[in-house]
Amino acid sequence: MSWVLLFALTAVTFFNRYVFLEPKTMIRLPKFTLHMLKYAAPCLMISIVSPVIFFEGGEWKGGWGNSYFYGALLTILVTCITRKLLLSISLSLMLFYIYIYFISF
Hints:
By secondary structure, the protein is mainly alpha-helical. It has helices spanning 3-21, 31-37, 40-54, 67-82, 85-103, and strands at 55-56, 59-60. It contains 5 helices and 2 strands; from the N terminus they run H-H-H-E-E-H-H. It has a two-stranded antiparallel sheet. The two termini are 25 Å apart.
């Protein structure tokens, strides 16, 4: 997956969430739709990141020998503990790179 595609998907996700969830916009949606939009970004990120975690060059990476799999599990754990987006991202990236460069063989 290229960086251009990743940034394009990020921009589309941000634009969609901003237009519909920003209180200052004139667009009003039903509460059910607004509630569903709050889950759009995590669902989209899972669909983007899943192939990166489990596949490399169209081949299955496996689970237990895969550092990206451990990074994903660690990210889930950190997110459940902290419940803060920026802190979760920072800690997860830091711990993932520590694992890749210092612990993983």
